[in-house]
Model the fold of this input.
Amino acid sequence: MIFNYQLLIINGIPQKAGVNYYKNFMKLFLKCFLMVCFSANLFSQSDEIRIMDITVEGNQRLTAQDVQRNARLYKGMTIKGPEIQQAIKRLWNLKRFGNIQIMIDDETDEGIYLRIVVEENPTLGEVEFEGNKKKSTRTLNEELELNTGQILSEYAVFEAMEKIKSLYAEKNYHSVSIDTVYSPGEKEFSQNLKFIIKEGKKTKIKKIVFEGNEKFSDNKLAGIFKENKAKKWYAPWRGAWKEDLLQGDKDLLSSFYKNKGYRDFYILDHNIQLTENG
Done:
């Protein structure tokens, strides 16, 4: 993966210029968010109403009493609208459920009949990795800290994938893509998790371009950078994209300009143009 790095400056005065699984995670989050918002409209914020009965569906390892206790909703109690909303939040914060719904099955003059429907997350069985040539399975296991028996939530898997990408980025692999595959585990209600990793190629800087630098050439300014340097045929080892060290290079550029008398200098933005081949 080759890219041109572009920094926008104009004589010290900036001008405007024109980072499959994440979708699943956000879809579940949005579903819960919409349910929380909907629950607030079941009845007005100030109305009090009695819970005549509560049923629980979808629970596998937790008992109905466990779900009600964590939701803090009980038969016979009097509640207001926000308490339904708070109950969903309490259950969601347990990170044990992939889906939570609280619905009214019936409404009478005496009160309402509630139904709590949950979808429990499985527990984690075995963790496997495929395609990880640049990072050993042992290293990935140690860094991710995914343990057999833990609750396998959407959030936990999302965080693990972000960690894998971060580990590869440290080695200048910025185009890593990751898929996940689930399979039944040996224990009941458990699932094995496999990360399928496509490492891609190392990200290299082909060229560093500056805009608005009327007094100093691109080569002069690029030479100030200490960590991020463009790849050259005579220096093939150069060109590694070190995003975490970019701020240090920008600070060096800022110091250079201010030492030359440009006291109002600052950098507005930077952008990256990616190409598959050099």
Observations:
- Confidence is low (pLDDT under 50) at residues 8-22, 29-42.
- The two ends are 8 Å apart (CA to CA).
